[in-house]
Design a protein that fits this description.
The complex is a heterodimer of chains A (110) and B (135).
Chain A: E1 2-5, E2 8-11, H1 26-35, H2 42-58, H3 64-75, H4 82-88, H5 93-100
Antiparallel strand pairs in A: 1-2
Chain B: E1 6-11, H1 20-31, E2 37-42, E3 79-82, H2 83-88, E4 100-103, E5 109-112, E6 114-117, H3 119-127, E7 131-134
Parallel strand pairs in B: 1-2, 1-7, 2-3, 3-6
Antiparallel strand pairs in B: 4-5
The chains are: A mainly alpha (110), B alpha/beta (135).
């Protein structure tokens, strides 16, 4: 399977996660979001970029509890809660935002 | 009512060459979602798992050592390291990664996660656990 991003075909797995993290570019997130009927605003990008930085540092996609806590610390308590994150990513922030960010599915996420 | 159990994950093997270390780490991270009292122990070759400066380029495996730094985020703050195992390998605590956790109640102060213990002390800690899982 693959998705079309800026004229290139990038491989994804059966659940739509990018096969190779290093092929990610911002267009990946835009294309994936569009396919799920979403437009990405600054608030979405803030979370996507945060996830990419987290993965860069720790080599894992954080669990949702860890994500909300870390977001709260970095971006403020009004953003560090699951209500805010679910409003941005209704299919589940860890699952959906991680996918847009090109990360593997979070460990322990079914 | 408290049904929190004390879980200890005992790591005995070198990080690469077998899948034990990575599997253990994944189980720990998944298990962390269940709000139990979790600690880790590093004994025998397991002490190599948290050594500073790991480089896996020559063996074509993912270097997952950075993930141990995330344990604090998962509220896993007790990493027992057996002194005898370090000494037998010519290592000291300075050869290990600096692993810390942030105490939210004390303005996110960074506190060390590594607890250096003797074999006898570790045996005592182990005896106080509800569940001990060995990898």
């Amino acid at each position: 399977m693959g998705i079309e991003v800026n004229g290139k075909t990038l491989e994804v797995d059966e659940e739509g996660y990018l096969a190779d993290l290093s092929t990610w570019e911002p267009g990946v997130a835009t294309v994936m979001a569009k396919a799920e009927g979403q437009e990405l605003g600054d608030d979405h990008w803030e979370i996507i970029n945060f996830l990419r930085e987290y993965y860069e540092e720790y080599q894992i996609a954080p669990a949702i509890r860890v994500l909300t806590k870390a977001i709260g610390k970095k971006l403020g308590k009004d953003k560090g809660n699951s209500k805010y994150l679910y409003e941005l990513f209704p299919y589940g922030p860890a699952k959906q935002a991680c996918k847009y960010a090109g990360l593997p599915k979070p460990t322990g996420c079914v | 009512m408290s049904d929190i159990k004390k879980f200890m994950y005992v790591n005995r093997k070198a990080p690469y060459g077998t899948v034990y270390a990575l599997e253990s780490l994944e189980v720990v991270l998944i298990g962390a979602a269940f709000d139990q009292d979790v600690s880790l122990a590093f004994v025998d070759d397991g002490v190599y798992q948290i050594m500073e400066g790991q480089d896996t380029t020559g063996i074509g495996m993912k270097n997952f050592s950075a993930t141990y730094r995330a344990l604090g985020d998962y509220e896993i703050t007790k990493l027992y390291v057996e002194k005898e195992s370090l000494e037998a390998r010519g290592l000291s605590v300075e050869d290990l990664m600096e692993l810390t956790w942030e105490d939210e109640d004390e303005d996110y102060e960074e506190k060390p996660s590594i607890i250096l213990v003797s074999s006898a002390e570790l045996a005592e800690v182990m005896a106080g656990q509800d569940v001990v899982l060995s990898f």
